[in-house]
Amino acid sequence: MKRLLIWPNTDKDQVRGLTGRISKWATDHGIDIIIPTALAEAVGYPDLGQDLDHVPEGSVDGIIVLGGDGTLLHAAKALAHLNCPILGVNLGHLGFLTEVEVPDLLPALTAMVNNQYDIDQRHLLTARVMRGHRELAHFEAMNDVVVTKGPFARLINLETFVDDAYVTTYPADGLIVASPTGSTAYSLSAGGPILSPALSVMVVTPICPHSFFDRSIVINGDQQVKIRVRAMHRDTLVTVDGQETYPLVDGDEVLVETSPTTIRLFRRPGWSFFQVLRGWRKGH
Questions:
Q1: Helices 105-113 and 15-28 meet at what angle, rounded to 10?
Q2: What is the pLDDT of residues 245-256, one digit of tens each?
Q3: I need a labelling partner for 279 at 20 to 30 A (CA). Which of 2, 56, 142, 164 fits?
Q4: Which range (89-103, 147-161, 240-254) has the least confidence?
């Protein structure tokens, strides 16, 4: 490895010190470090800053994300064009995506440069907001795409289709379409199943449905979910990974499919999703 990119969560107190430790380690190993310009300035290393528009695919060998799962979600999508693996360093609670804790950081980096790692590949979801035949917005999601009512709105009716086959109309607070990666996020809290990230599927989970048809549906990853909004009020929106939103009106459609874009995560040999799951259950 010749060049690594650091994406720090600037709200975390320890990121400045960790950035310095990584930079020193990299210098000792003959590796260059870059940080997106605004983030580099925020953590006190402006000399390492670089505009991402000037960082082409193939110019970085790995990405180190300092934060939690939310930070990794944001960074993974912002840096997807670089097409290189990501090492997540957990600075918060137990994460399903982040790989190492702070005490294990430098040994994990050494394992990386010695090619002692596995790659965990995750597909994104793509979501399009349609009004008639016009595309209003386009998003990529690592966890989920959620059509939901606003905080003060009445329930909404969501006509739901899979590959144009009508499924049902959910009178509900909302509807979640999650990837296997996102099955342990909002979908799980709404009663959805835990899915192995190795599966190529999507799961559709209603939020507080006002009907007996309230179970999640798991579908093939090569299928399309279409959600047509039926709501007379203007307080409905689509949210993507809990980080991006777009307002919806009656008749709008949200089309969700598996994206051709994949995110690759560094994993130490022996890493297991089920081991992380056991740790999460103990914590709860």
A1: 30
A2: 999 999 999 999
A3: 142
A4: 89-103
Does residue 163 have an active-site annotation?
no
Average pLDDT over residues 204-233: 91
Show the CA angle centred on residue 24, arms to residues 97 and 35, nearest 5°.
55
Give the whole-angstrom CA distance, residue 90 versus residue 167: 39
Asked if the model's pLDDT at residue 93 lies above 70, the reply is no
Distance between CA atoms of residues 100 and 166, nearest Å: 43
Assess contact for 140 and 81: CB atoms under 8 A. Answer: no
- Tell me the mean pLDDT in the region 44-58: 92
* Rg from Cα positions in the chain: 20
Q: Which of 11, 69, 173, 241 is catalytic?
A: 69
Q: What is the mean pLDDT of the chain?
A: 91
Phi, psi of 178 (to 5 degrees): -120, 150
CB 23 within 8 A of CB 82: no
Contact 98, 90 (CB under 8 A): yes
Contact 195, 218 (CB under 8 A): yes
